[in-house]
Amino acid sequence: MHTRHSSFVAGLIVSALVPCATASAQPTNISPAHKYCWGENVGWLNWRDAGSPPGAQGARIGAAFLSGFVWGESIGWVNLGDGSPADGSRYANTDGTDTGVNIDAISGDLYGLAWGESVGWINFDTRVALAPFGQQARWDSAAQRLRGFAWGENIGWINLDSDEHFVAVGCAADYNGDGVRDVPDIFAFLTDWFAGVPRAYTFGGTAGVPAIFAFLSAWFAGCP
Q1: What ranges do the domains of the chain cover?
Q2: Would you tell me how many other CB atoms lie within 10 Å of the CB of residue 50?
Q3: Could you tell me which residue, 56 or 5, shows the higher pLDDT?
Q4: CA angle, corner 188, sides to 183 and 191, nearest 5?
Q5: pLDDT 10s digits, 78-126
């Protein structure tokens, strides 16, 4: 249904490729103001500041999967995935060599496993238990934040859905989640937009062509 907009979008691409200053690269794309979530038995979990300098190995929310590390003062490191799924698009989660948290392209629901060095597997696929209540772990593309609850057999529920303390993307223009706002983000966004992927098609809380303008505005504005 997007075909008739092809010429229009092509013009936008050309305009977007005009050289301009790009933001400094940073591996994590988590907002400094919204980097914590709460575990009922483990306390605060910091999604941004892993690594040296802080943020060098922090969590990243990409177009199709999560990667990087979360830090819990009482549980140590939690690995969301290495950022390199074996098939290039999704972690298989069939064995310990290709594990991580994925994002469903249609619903935004999270699925897959994270690994805590002292707490074992943390399951982000809570659709069976919580989807009837709208509390499954998921990526809210309109709000650019995580929602719902994840589950760890050894640590209980992890709350991603607090109104006061939640995990959000700090630079929405870093669409592919590689830590850099650059031209590949534009192509990644448009690929998803033409495919009708909700994360792109409803970017900025709009739908259809206005979502393109919302994304390009964010892209040209740069990243903090």
Answers
A1: 30-169
A2: 22
A3: 56
A4: 130
A5: 999 999 999 989 999 998 899 999 999 889 999 999 999 899 999 999 9
Rounded to whole angstroms, how far apart are CA atoms 208 and 218?
16
| Residue 101, pLDDT score | 98
Task: Give the per-residue SS3 of the chain.
Answer: CCHHHHHHHHHHHHHHCCCCCCCCCCCCCEEEEEEEEEECCCEEEECCCCCCCCCCCECEECCCEEEEEEEECCCEEEEEECCCCCCCCCCCCCCCCCCCEEECCCCCEEEEEEEECCCEEEECCCHHHHHHHCCECEEECCCCEEECEEEECCCEEEECCCCCCCEEECCCCCCCCCCCCCHHHHHHHHHHHHCCCHHHHCHHHCCCHHHHHHHHHHHHHCCC
Q: How far apart are CA 181 and CA 172, in angstroms?
A: 9
Indicate the burial class of 2 (C-beta count within 10 angstroms; 0-12, 13-18, 19 or more).
middle
Tell me which amino acid residue 26 is.
Q
Q: Each residue of 193-213: pLDDT tens digit?
A: 999 888 888 887 888 899 999
